[in-house]
């Protein structure tokens, strides 16, 4: 794993955007895996700014998001569909039919998971997967204990994850109990992975990741097995390392 240390969240976001823009500029039909949450908001702002400045075009880009809450539709302000539309897709020249998220409102969730996995495979796999890090080591919504062999599946969200995400909802009880997520195996099949870790709240998890051997109780530790992982971290997230 390659660790790039940046001073601030802003600098980490700029470094992440440069890596993504380089890929979009170099690859003919790039397939990018996207994350939601607080961490990549700065990255998406940078992508929008670069698009507006004429530095990058997204017309040939295909995207697959990591996850979506079960039960929340595209119009729900807390759905990841809505998040992506607001923060990125509606502000750049991406072909919206080439953007994909799991359908959290699918009647048959199991078959939705299979379809999603096939869509990724049919696109030729993911060239670059963006990840954030959960305080408990989760990646996507793969909570501690998730099999490293898992493909896209339905998960029960951990109490700690629901508590962490309650800040976006009216209350913790309003956070959906389930989500659809790419599995660990799905994520590991990506050709390249960019993990962004920022803020004091992630310092313990980042330290654990860097020192932890592969262990299903700390899902992100699987990344040690991948040959092409870059971690971009800010000083706040690195504070436990000093
Ligand atoms: C989001 C996702 C999650 C987040 C993680 C960190 O699509 O899959 O794994 O990346 O929970 O969230 P933030 O960035 O809000 O701290």
Characterise this structure.
It holds the Pfam family Glucosamine_iso. The chain is an alpha/beta fold. It has a single domain, classed as 3-Layer(aba) Sandwich (Rossmann fold), CATH 3.40.50.1360. It has seven helices and ten strands. It has helices spanning 9-26, 41-52, 80-87, 109-122, 159-165, 184-188, 203-211, and strands at residues 2-6, 31-34, 62-65, 67-69, 99-100, 128-132, 153-156, 178-181, 192-197, 229-234. Strand 2 (31-34), helix 2 (41-52) and strand 3 (62-65) form a beta-alpha-beta unit. Helix 1 crosses helix 2 (41-52). It is globular. Bound molecules: fructose -6-phosphate. Fructose -6-phosphate is lined by residues 35-39, 66-67, 132-134, 138-141.
List the helices and strands and how they pair.
Elements: E1 2-6, H1 9-26, E2 31-34, H2 41-52, E3 62-65, E4 67-69, H3 80-87, E5 99-100, H4 109-122, E6 128-132, E7 153-156, H5 159-165, E8 178-181, H6 184-188, E9 192-197, H7 203-211, E10 229-234
Parallel strand pairs: 1-10, 2-3, 2-6, 3-5, 6-9, 9-10
Antiparallel strand pairs: 4-8, 7-8
Fructose -6-phosphate binds at residues 35-39, 66-67, 132-134, 138-141.
| Count of the separate structural domains | 1
Proportion of strand residues: 15-25%
The number of helices is 7
Number of E-type strands = 10
**Structural class based on helices, strands and sheet pairing:** alpha/beta
Gross geometry: globular
Instruction: Provide the CATH topology.
Output: Rossmann fold
Low-confidence stretches: none
Which strand order do you get reading across the main beta sheet? 1-10-9-6-2-3-5
CATH top level assignment: Alpha Beta
Termini separation? 19 Å
Q: For the CA atoms, what is the radius of gyration?
A: 17 Å
On the 0 to 100 scale, the average pLDDT is 97
| Proper CATH architecture | 3-Layer(aba) Sandwich
The percent range for helix content is 25-40%
């Amino acid at each position: 794993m390659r660790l790039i240390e940046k001073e601030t969240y802003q600098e980490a976001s700029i470094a992440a955007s440069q890596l993504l823009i380089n890929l979009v500029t170099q690859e003919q039909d790039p397939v990018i895996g996207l994350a939601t949450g607080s961490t990549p908001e700065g990255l998406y702002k940078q992508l929008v700014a670069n698009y507006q400045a004429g530095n990058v075009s997204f017309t040939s880009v295909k995207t697959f998001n990591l996850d979506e809450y079960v039960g929340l539709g595209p119009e729900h302000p807390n759905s990841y569909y809505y998040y992506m539309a607001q923060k990125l897709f509606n502000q750049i020249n991406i072909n919206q039919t080439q953007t994909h998220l799991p359908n959290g409102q699918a009647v048959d969730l199991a078959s939705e998971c299979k379809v999603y996995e096939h869509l990724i495979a049919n696109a030729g796999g993911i060239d670059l997967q963006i990840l954030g890090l959960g305080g408990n080591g989760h990646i996507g919504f793969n909570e501690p204990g998730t099999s490293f062999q898992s493909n896209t599946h339905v998960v029960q969200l951990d109490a700690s994850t629901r508590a962490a995400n309650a800040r976006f909802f009216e209350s913790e009880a309003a956070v959906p109990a389930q989500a659809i997520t790419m599995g660990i195996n799905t994520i590991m099949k990506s050709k390249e992975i960019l993990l962004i870790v920022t803020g004091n709240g992630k310092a313990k998890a980042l330290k654990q990741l860097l020192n932890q051997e592969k262990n299903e109780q700390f899902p992100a530790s699987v990344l040690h097995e991948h040959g092409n992982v870059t971690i971009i971290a800010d000083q706040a997230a690195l504070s436990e390392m000093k």
